[in-house]
Design a protein that fits this description.
The chain is α/β, with parallel strands linked by helices. The chain has helices spanning 58-64, 114-127, 162-166, 234-242, 255-262, 294-303, 306-313, 335-340, 345-354, 376-389, 402-410, 449-459, 469-482, and strands spanning 3-4, 37-41, 69-70, 79-80, 83-88, 95-100, 140-146, 150-155, 196-202, 206-211, 225-230, 248-249, 269-284, 319-320, 361-368, 393-400, 416-421, 485-498, 501-502, 520-521. Belongs to the bacterial solute-binding protein 5 family.
Length: 525
Amino acid sequence: MFNRNRCLRKLAAIASVSLVAGCGVLSDSNPDSKGPIVVGTTSAPSTLDPAAAWDGSWELFRNIYQTLVAYPNGATTPQPDAAKSCAFTDSSNRTYHCALRPDMEFADGHPLTAEAVKYSIDRIRAIDAPSGPAGLLGSLDRVEIRGDLDVFFHLDQPDTTFPFVLATPAMSIVDPRDYPAESLREDGKVFGSGPYELRSYEEGKRAVLVRNDRYQGFAERQNEAVTIRYFQGSAAMVEALRAKDIDLTYRGLAAGDIIALQGHEAKDLQLVDGAGTDISYLVFNPKDPWADKIAVRKAVAQVVDRAAIAHKVYKDTVDPLYSMVPKGLTGHTTGFFDDFGEPDVAKARRILTDAGITERVPLTLWYTTDRYGSETAREFRELKTQLENSGLFTITLKSRPWKTYVVGYQKGEYPVFGRGWFPDFPDADNFIAPFVGEQNALGTPYPASRITKELLPASRRQSDRAAVVKQFEEAQQILVDDARLLPLWQGRQYVAASDDISGGERALDPSTIMMMWELHRKTSW
């Protein structure tokens, strides 16, 4: 029988999941006798080296590498993991100290000391990979170590979000003996200090995780092994779930498959339906002569019908979004709706004609074929239809697989392109800071000096994040006024699982990254 629980509880203030309890008794009293738990996802890693990844690769990293601080189940702020304690040592929030647990080791037996922590952070900045996370360390001046266990992060400005940065899988601790200081590791191997070892890895196919007996941290593993299988699309993934070739799906369920599961078309499955903070948005590249015109950008913002995209393409499994900061986070606004209202072609035409633009505007919209789910192509076809039906635009659609897509937008090749964003940490800062500045996560410089030089620095001085709402509201209004970024929708979290799998209600951290160690098979119902 298909089970579905609509009673959601709060998880880490922003992500909620609730699993279903069934009835009956399983015949096998030993959960591990059925082998590893197999998780399916459409989000394959782009790299195995943390210095090169600011993307969905983090989902694997969280389980095989370790960070100084992370999120135990139920935590909304970072707690010590590889560290035994961490705290700011000064009232200005410019020096952050972490004391490591003693006698830490990597999975290969090499010692994990303060030197390894400093090495890991320094190499991120030294390599400065185009798709890497160096941008997250913008407030870091230098790393100092004292002895084998003490690490001091000296910041060049107050930054109360720095512990959140350290909690991201981007700051995974690597072994100096195995990872070059100024280049990426490319042998396909990993020796981290996380809850699992990476036993084997086939790019784009599977990652085999087994228990790391040398791990020291807060994770209490409920299983001995997990295999992650990577799928190209939702249909094949759901077929594997129904055939019991996998036990659980995470990321990538298509709207149609979600609706089918909700409609009781699957037996012996359960659906986890929870709030999410992932967003989808368009980026306008100022290198393109048309995308550089603010009138063009605002006309697009005036025409785009988010509700139609959510309903027609995603079957209401996502919600329209009118700000880069999603609902559920302190500081969220509805700035694009407040300024533009409902889609209105007449208003869009006036915006263009007032700027002296009377001909159809030619724009090329790019999207990736294999990162954000099976509906991406349909979403962009819907955008093309909406914009062309206005009579104001001529739209060309182009696409690439993620690996080459990333290279293209980093080189500034795309006039307008689609991106998705899963939060690095659950704070409004992380939905603004990564997209602005001369160097940002989008490869398109966006100075926004009022945001980067005044509003964000002011907000980072405050440890009480509820006290910085005004700064975030003003920053969002600047984003609306510039219309360089156009938010489209906010996602939800859907996880489908066999009815003998438990732990899903504990498995998502505040960034909605799955902590595989929380999953286990039920021994009784």
